[in-house]
Write a structure and sequence with these properties.
The complex is a heterodimer of chains A (298) and B (283).
Chain A (H helix, E strand, L loop, with lengths): L2 H12 L19 H8 L8 H23 L1 H7 L1 H14 L14 H7 L8 H19 L8 H6 L14 E5 L3 H13 L5 H17 L5 E8 L2 E7 L1 H11 L4 H9 L9 H14 L14
Antiparallel strand pairs in A: 1-2, 2-3
Chain B lengths: L13 E4 L5 H7 L5 E5 L9 H12 L1 E5 L13 H14 L4 E4 L2 E4 L2 E7 L5 H18 L3 E4 L14 H12 L2 E5 H11 L3 H7 L5 E7 L2 E2 L4 E2 L8 H14 L4 E4 L7 H9 L2 H12 L1
Parallel strand pairs in B: 1-2, 1-12, 2-3, 3-4, 4-7, 7-8, 8-9, 9-12
Antiparallel strand pairs in B: 5-6, 10-11
Helix pairs in contact in B: 4-5, 7-8, 8-10
Classes of the chains: A mainly alpha (298), B alpha/beta (283).
Chain lengths: 298, 283
């Protein structure tokens, strides 16, 4: 048997979902007998059958990828509940197995997958999608690229309405229906507490369920960014968010300001002051890239 | 051998794996450590804290890169994006040599993120060696391959594991990262004498040695890197050092990670054996 054939057969078995009692299934999802695959390729020994030896790898695969999903999406887990989150993760990973050399990218397709499979979150679909978007933006902000920030003198030199500004690649701008930033911070705070007893963990789980159940829709605009290598969630005013979005999409400063205030209730007289304050904050946070790094505009 | 073409003619002593729970201790206390091994994939990113920490470490310590997903033994071609990012990191760390596992783990672009065992066939040896050469030529640094722990053997195997290792490294003309804990784990799982393995390894190709702890279950042993090194593994290490000389040695501890000092103290136990190897070489 050729190397490629052995590896395809074994990988299919290793990545096949486990049974509810965490054993290897008799049949793969495609209907092939995993017992037959095991006995065709794996030798038994004096302690383990071919099936049991293959099962070790099957379990290790799922323990590893499920642990990675839980580490990356604790907020989604709090929304769905541990059992449902596990089941959802198994289905997601069966549909979208890793195509990257790093586990960091395991959840890259979760948002689009969850949109196509609303049954997993049911009535909490909008909340769950908000959370996935936030948690993925958190991953991107943690290790995304940073470029040299724009210096004040660079901005003053070319600050007219035709100026184009570029945001740091690690920044995520999110318009969300729920205040999931508060929820995910509470979940992470809980998870960080060490030496938790079983009773404490039970209380914590109940508290989480209550927190999720009480969460009401409240549209928010968020910048997921980092400062001194720590990821932060910064709430933005609607117009502030639209201005950043427009700049990030490549609009000139003038057009971006027009887009941000098109349906705004902020009185025209107050807008220059708002814009000045926002730019001051963004510059202090180093959100704009130096023009030396900018792509050429046609 | 202490310094050879497979480890860039370096003479490194005892190192430990650079792990996130120890970052703060290392950066603030600046402990004396001969070298750190990093998991390449953890730093093949675009920015952020991991690279910032790595740059700080690189200012004060020697670093060697160890990969977990090149999958030299996978039948498919190397992932170009992986290679591009790996080369960027190699330029950053200036690692004198680079290691990854003699295993496979991806098929048709899908990754298992595990170190799956090889069927020990001549075809597999040829494919693996070709890939090692391709990676080494692209990265332009010496490459050493690590023997993995395994829990399964294949019907199609045509040779013993150590014969397969030798076949691959001869065809690829590459080094060996000899993991003595993995030899012990596999010997228990597959009923062979671990000293037969140690004796068969071409000592002149050993670039580095790994030591680690493992977990014992009723019917098999798992390579978990979450315990101190046990005496039978130290005995294998002693024999490996007798044969290969004072070789760069690294303790792996990846789960239930204790304090930096505990990990370092455990690694420094290797000094007992390295000292006698140095003495023997001097006589």
């Amino acid at each position: 048997m050729k190397l490629a054939t052995i590896q395809r057969r074994m990988a299919r078995a290793v990545m096949a979902p486990l049974t509810p009692s965490e054993h290897m299934r008799m049949m793969a999802p495609d209907g092939r007998s995993l017992r037959a695959v095991a006995s065709q390729i794996i030798k038994p020994n004096d302690r383990l059958t071919s099936f049991e030896r293959l099962e070790i790898y099957n379990r290790q695969y799922w323990y590893r990828v499920l642990a990675s999903m839980l580490e990356d999406f604790p907020g989604l887990c709090a929304i769905l509940g541990e059992r449902r989150f596990q089941e959802m993760s198994k289905t997601y990973l069966t549909d979208c197995p890793s195509r990257s050399f790093t586990l960091r990218n395991l959840g890259a397709r979760l948002e689009s997958w969850l949109r196509k499979h609303p049954q997993w979150a049911g009535s909490k679909q909008a909340l769950a999608l908000d959370m996935v978007r936030l948690e993925w933006a958190d991953i991107e902000a943690f290790d995304g690229q940073a470029e040299p920030p724009l210096r004040a003198e660079e901005l003053q030199a070319g600050a007219d309405e035709k100026l184009r500004l570029r945001l740091q690649p690690y920044i995520g701008l999110l318009a969300l229906q729920y205040p999931v930033d508060d929820l995910v911070l509470a979940v992470k705070r809980d998870d960080d507490s060490e030496f938790a007893s079983n009773a404490f963990n039970e209380r914590r789980k109940r508290k989480r369920v209550t927190s999720v159940a009480r969460l009401r829709p409240e549209p928010i605009h968020l910048a997921v960014h980092r400062l001194d290598f720590i990821v932060y969630y910064r709430r933005l005013e609607r117009e502030e968010f639209l201005l950043l979005k427009a700049l990030a999409s490549g609009k000139t400063l003038g057009r971006a300001i027009d887009a941000a205030f098109r349906k705004s209730s902020i009185p025209a007289a107050e807008r220059p002051e708002n814009i000045e304050e926002w730019f001051r904050n963004w510059a202090a946070l180093g959100w704009f890239c130096s023009p030396n790094q900018m792509p050429r505009q046609s | 051998m202490p310094a050879n073409k497979f480890n860039g003619f370096t003479e490194y002593g005892i190192g430990i794996g650079l792990r996130a729970p120890h970052y703060q201790h290392i950066l603030t206390r600046k402990p004396v450590v001969d070298w750190f091994e990093i998991i390449s994939e953890n730093f093949m990113i675009d920015g952020g804290r991991p690279l910032y920490v790595l740059d700080q470490i690189l200012e004060q310590y020697k670093v060697v890169q160890h990969g977990v997903s090149m999958y030299f033994g996978s039948a498919e071609r190397p992932n170009r994006e992986h290679l591009r990012r790996l080369k960027e990191l190699v330029k950053r760390t200036k690692t004198p040599w680079l290691t990854d596992h003699l295993c496979w783990g991806s098929v048709d672009g899908r990754y298992t993120h595990d170190l799956l065992p090889m069927p020990y066939t001549f075809e597999a040896a040829r494919i693996t060696a070709q890939k090692i050469r391709e990676v080494r030529d692209f990265l332009e640094i010496p490459v050493a391959v690590e023997n993995v722990s395994s829990y399964a053997e294949f019907h199609v195997s045509e040779m013993a594991e150590w014969e397969f290792l030798n076949e691959v490294v001869e065809l690829a003309d590459c080094g060996i990262l000899l993991d003595v804990n993995n030899i012990y784990v596999s010997s228990q799982n597959h009923n062979f004498n671990p000293f037969d393995y140690i004796e068969a390894v071409p000592a002149e190709r050993v670039a580095q040695i790994h030591i680690a702890g493992h977990s014992k279950y009723r019917k098999y042993i798992l390579d978990t890197h979450d315990h101190p090194v046990i005496d039978p593994v130290w005995k294998l290490y002693a024999r490996a050092i007798e044969r290969a000389g004072h070789t760069a040695t690294l303790l792996e501890w990846d789960d239930h990670i204790p304090t930096f000092q505990e990990v370092h103290d455990e690694a420094l136990k290797a000094n007992r054996f390295l000292a006698s190897a140095s003495l023997a070489a001097a006589v």
